[in-house]
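agent> Task received from the user: take the single chain below, predict its 3D structure, and emit structure tokens. No templates, no multimer pairing.
agent> Plan: (1) validate residues, (2) run structure prediction, (3) serialize to tokens, (4) report one or two observations.
agent> Step 1 OK, no nonstandard residues flagged.
tool_call: predict_structure(input=
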Amino acid sequence: MTPPIKRLMQLLLLLLGCPALTLAQPRTLTFDRDSTGQLSATLAHHTLYRDGVRGTALDLSARAACRTPLVLDSMSFTANGKQIYGIALWVRTPAGALPGSAGAVIATNVDKTAKAGGFTIGASANGSWYAGFTDNNGNSLWYEPTPARQPLNDGRWHLLALTYSKRLDKARFYYDGQNVAIYNLNELGPINGRGKIRLGGADSTEWNAFNGQIDEFTLYDRIPTPEMLFRLYSSYYTRARLTPLPDSLAELKLMAFNIWHGGRETGAEVGPQRVADLIRRSGADVVGLIETYGSGPAIADALGYYLYLHSSNLSILSRYPIGRTYDFFHPFNCSAARIRVSKTQAIHYVNLWLHYLPDTQQQLEQGMKPDSIVGQEWTTRAGELKQILHDADSVGFLSGDVPTFVSGDFNSDSHLDWIRATRHLHRGYVLPWPTSQLMADAGFQDAYRVCYPNPKTHPGITWSPLIDAADSSALRYRIDFIYYKGPGVVPREVEVIDTHPIRYPSDHAAVVGTFDLPVHALH
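)
tool_result: status=success, residues=523
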């Protein structure tokens, strides 16, 4: 079809109202009186708060006589049969007010009785907010930030938003116009989104109704961009500004850190605080967390970082905005993202965890032959890494056109370490570990070994800070790595961190690398 005819057909289809070519428009529910000064029937018994974002707002606070949640019969989620949408609403809670020990639902379309999964946005008992998704079988995944960074009960209007894409199995969460978190939802089952939207509570009673005001509830039947949502926020807070990206970035600090059961082994609250303290002291810009296990939001908030939770195990924290995310191999083993670090630069980053079996110390104690040890590596760790590298390379993620980093807990050492000169450190073994060889074959360099090429003088041990160096019965070795590739990427310094001023919170040492970056235009 020639271009002029094609353009004519597009115009005719548009005039005829072809749904495929009609731009989706957001629908907004306001709580203002109509031109005659009358309220709609659904709001007839409700109290309005006069100082809304635009006009009046729905009042469900303690000052309202009627606090019954609203059911929105006319708003549907499956526009054109697609499970792609965005939700945004303005929320205000009286200063110091708390919703109760269980929190309070602000908006939801989850109906467990009808097995209808969907979204929920709520007020947390700690004074912040929460959001998440529930599948049709009642399983949920929650984003639960902290009041220190994301308060809700300060008497101010706040814009809360989320987006959902079934095709990508991803959700993004926004606080005051900023994309604070991205969640991968593929650990959940199907989400049909067929339930009716309810505002102000999870059911029709006032028992657990939201204690606050709601205004300008907007439903998008496409995914609004971060720019759209920030414009919505700044239309009310006109002085709001996003932190600008630097024009260019000369160096990047990256950390690989297995934080051990969410960092909670030294305390449910204290442990993650110590993890955040270590990250802050290191100056790391991008952090690959392993064994996140629910601590991601608190650690990200303590640092003021963006969060990408790819699975219960793996997450990425970043000082800079996280752009496109990728799915390679299994979510529990691998997370990946493109991160925009300046106006002219981006990086590709893979955070991974490889299987903890086979147990290397047990193999050595049994006197297993080197060939058998290497062979068993391929049944788990080496096989997993080979598939990760294949999946990433198949979409050009590892091309090296932009600085590319792979870090994480490999649960396996390096062929660069287990050499003849260090065999006395490894029960007499010389082993060509296949995981490190796979990384080398893929064009990656081991940042620690580039900076410290002698494994005898600089073993770089990361497993484990809990093992006494004088204990000769326990195997201490290097299993946490940062690899890199790309023209112009140079490791300037790599540090192994295994101490804390009070008590170190993990059984793994953290690895922090400082890299010089090439200054070039984005691809």
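agent> Step 4: summary for the user.
Residues 23-234 form a domain with the Jelly Rolls fold (CATH 2.60.120.200).
agent> Done.
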